[in-house]
């Protein structure tokens, strides 16, 4: 266990098909790190002697059959193994149901076969395996081990996906990617591609509904989480119906002064409404932020205020965040973070952070110095 508890990080296993002999594979292991270029710069990361003893579970499959699970103990940097039933038309899957603490990469041919399997019949692979494939593919692409088109091709099957975990794995990877691409000339191609994958499931699941007494019509936890995930993707990437529904719910709240927005999508609706509608909606949310005493609701409302497309309102909020009578000291940094996540506020947040550095650092020190649990942390606030 020393390899897993004392060595930094975790490994990535790469499985390569042997082009000269059938049923043979090459398995390599290396230290997984997101910034490969950092490895050459930082002395601590240059240790190429890292080795783990890895229990690699594998199955072999094709369109009609999946083999029983086998286990290979990988102890060396590179190993050759013979795999039964592996031929040119078969794919290989490692780390079954994500039971091992490592990532798995494959040669491009195997990735293509797995993508084809997902598109033809994704249920041949378990929910955990589907989620794991998506998570590994996006992480490997982010780290430079894999071309970026592979994870984007994997999610082509998502319109047929009915389970929460694969959708969650995809959305968790897509939001950071969206932030990187939203300044690119061809961003619309990416945006439309994601909307296309989301559209079918969004229509199928619809929005959560309230009973006549105002309580939420309950479905299973997984179903509600899936619906929330899909609604968030749809609204974030600009689905017209999603935008219209969010605007209608906000407008109804303003006109009736009764909040009938289902609890589990309030953050999505608030943020979408603030970004789409006029300054009056921002002022309404600001008023509600002041009047509510519920801490969780207050946090959602404050985050929604950072979603505005109006740079003047974002600047105003950043400056108000320094007033501890308006925004609690510990929430001020959250305002900066969320404004920075907004494409319209990214540069504003960075300028504000630099200009107000001394004030923010002093404020942070005060927060920690008040709490005995964090005594001494004030030196390392920001």
UniProtKB/TrEMBL annotation:
| Domain of life, per lineage | Eukaryota
Per UniProt, residues of the ERAP1-like C-terminal domain are 91-363
Q: Name one Pfam family in it.
A: ERAP1_C
Similarity section: Belongs to the peptidase M1 family.
The protein's name is Thyrotropin-releasing hormone-degrading ectoenzyme
